[in-house]
Amino acid sequence: MKMYQVDAFTQQLFKGNPAAVIVLHDWLDDTLMQNIALENNLSETAFVKVLDAQNYEIRWFTPTTEVDFCGHATLASSHVIFKDFTDASQIQFHVANLGIFTVEQAADGKIQMNFPMRRAQAVQDYPELLRQALTKPFKQVYLNAQAYIVEYESVQDVLDEQPDFELLKQLGRIRTAITASDADVSLDVAITSNSPQYDCVSRYFAPANGIPEDPVTGSIHTGIVPIWAAKLGKNELMAYQASARGGELYCRILENERIEISGYAKLYMQAEISIDA
User: Could you give the 3-state DSSP secondary structure of residue 235?
Assistant: First the structure.
């Protein structure tokens, strides 16, 4: 069985977020898919079922559980499909409970993914565990279907945060994102010597899902970007996820509660995995 490993939201190997991708004509047993994801021990392993050259189903597994939405593994899967499985420049993923994701590949290789927006609402009532787990002061807490999104005072505080993962784990399946946008977000010193200007910076923690800190998370930006789009008064934003690996997300607010999240991907590995019958 062929498996790919792709670094998503980056043009450089060993940056971005690595995902494993396995393309199938029929689903494997759920337990087997979970065991493969555990063996890979990446943030996500994506399993893609071919419907035809332009239509696919997709499922995502962390080392410990199946999740309902994963942006970086969708990007990685798209990269693989455009490379080896179709001559089309546009494909569709049919996703349980989330509908259809339309994905296009630009001439320069950038992959543009049309996702449903997952708006977050400001909340005053949130677990005390959240405040205890985070060491930096914050301005506002938001909540969407995926995570608490915590707005920090400064990008530097986002970079410096060292959360208590054991406390965050007690929040269960609701994950935690932290984010900020300074007036002029430049990360030259902290992240890269040739950094562009970013509209917002974030980090993302999901210890209950077996992912203490996720390197780059496409799905959570369907909640983060609308917050900053409203605050900054713009519909196109460039976001940076400031993990140790780091990754860039090109984001655009669309009509009908949709959002485009785009990025590049880099193939790291193709392998044959052996599964005993």
Answer: coil
